[in-house]
Amino acid sequence: MQISLTNSKVVNITNGIEKLSLPWQSDDSPNKPDDSSLPDDIGVGLQELASLNRRIFQPRLLPSHTVGTIGKGGMSKVFLITRDDDKVQLAQKEVTFDNARPFVNEVSALLLLKHENIIDVVEAGINRICKCSETNLAFRMEYIKDATHIKKVNLENPDEVIDLFKILIKATSALSEVHKNGIVHKDVKSKNIIFSDADNVKLIDFGLSKINRPDIGLVTTIENEGYMVGTPLYMAPEQTDDSTKCTYSSDIYSMVTTLYEALTGEHPIPEISFKETSAYYKSTLEVLSRIRHESPRDIRELNKHIVDKEFASTLLKGLAKEPKERIFKSAEDFSEFLKGVKLEKLLRFKKPLFFLNWFRRQTSNV
User: Fold this and answer.
1) What is the pLDDT of residues 58-110, one digit of tens each?
2) DSSP H/E element including 307
3) Does 246 map to a domain?
4) Considering 98, 114, 142, which residue would you say is the last residue of a domain?
5) Are 240 and 291 in contact (CB under 8 A)?
6) Which helix (H) or strand (E) holds 135?
7) In the listed set 107, 142, 177, which residue is the last one of a domain according to the structure?
8) For 332-358, b where at least 16 C-beta lie within 10 A, e where not — what string?
9) Do 69 and 169 have their domain in common?
């Protein structure tokens, strides 16, 4: 069995394996939706999804009530819900049938991944309460209370800087697990690394991911050759004109870009801005062209507090245009680099006495 998500629809490719008979296909099933006339291509994709994990995939999600909205994206909405039976709070991500491909893709990836720093999927299936409501696909995942995402840190605050590196080390550990499972994330960025504190970090949003697991018959991608998907500001050069060329190296490039953003608030490529109001002041095509052709800037030029020449040089090597020329050959390489950063060498503080006193407090607690 293999799931292939093409640019037009969800396609089922069977390899001598009998098709599943899902509960809602039986007329006398208590879980049958009010309207069982699901589009054929979506129904087939959901059959294959159910085969990955029958415990998690439900023909219809367990009853719940909505507490509030967590966020909205281009293809989905995320709500905070409380399940009626056990009162557990979960985050519920909903998409319409038009966006079934990334839904099947994301849940498939999450079913393969079990790691403390990757969001955990709990349920997936059809979400419909009554005949008058819209029928959506949805999956439920663990809810991280008071979660935020990576933002620019205050380099004058050593605790903020240390927390940033702790968070990125955990996120990179998650990315390493993703890659070990034959998955390219394809949308690594600051908003897809969420945390409630430096010890509770989660990598999220696998809707665009590319899964290559022929050993279990699972090979997916959501675009055809020559198409670009992802978030332009974080893309590696090879991703900017053809997302099918994405590799593990592309994800690591995006992680290095995220580090640049967190330490400086600036993009490594000149004349590209992370600021929401100006990120697309130039056409997206020009942004992509700059990423392909312009050289990244030394991070010391973007923030005068950063003075470590070796740190700056290593980041530039991590942003080489050609994947084979990048210094980080794996997520583990980048993680080891982050673990080796020495704050007292990396930064120059305006208030050295404050830093010295802070450093003495830290070492006295060891």
Assistant:
1) 667 888 889 999 988 778 899 999 999 899 999 999 988 777 888 888 988 99
2) none
3) yes
4) 142
5) yes
6) none
7) 142
8) ebbbebbeebebeebbebeeeeebeeb
9) no
The helix (run of H) or strand (run of E) holding residue 203 is strand 200-203
Residues 11/72/58/51 CA torsion (nearest 10 deg): 30
List the domain range (segments joined by +) for residue 245.
149-205+225-364
Assigned domain for 170 exists = yes
> Do you know the residue count of the chain?
366
CA distance 331 to 255: 9
On whether both 88 and 168 belong to a single domain, the answer is: no
pTM for this model (two decimals): 0.82
Residues 100 and 176 in one domain: no
C-alpha Rg value of the chain to the nearest Å = 22
CATH number of the domain at 181, please: 1.10.510.10
Q: Where are the alpha helices (DSSP H) in 10-83?
A: 40-52
Query: Alpha-carbon distance 84 to 230, whole Å?
Result: 36
Helix residue ranges, H only, 124-157: none
Main-chain phi, psi angles of 141, to 5 degrees? -135, 165
**Structural domain contains residue 47:** yes
Q: In what order do the strands lie in the sheet with 218-220?
A: 183-184, 210-213, 218-220
- DSSP-assigned letter for residue 118: B
Mark whether 125 and 188 lie in a shared domain: no
Residues 159 and 294 in one domain: yes
Helices (H), the chain: 40-52, 100-112, 158-180, 248-264, 284-293, 299-302, 309-318, 331-339, 343-346, 352-364
* 232-244 pLDDT, tens digit each: 999 999 999 888 8
Neighbours of 67 (CB within 10 A): 14
Overall domain count for the chain: 2
Helix 248-264 vs helix 331-339: crossing angle, to nearest 10? 30
Residues 355, 366: Cα–Cα separation, whole Å: 17
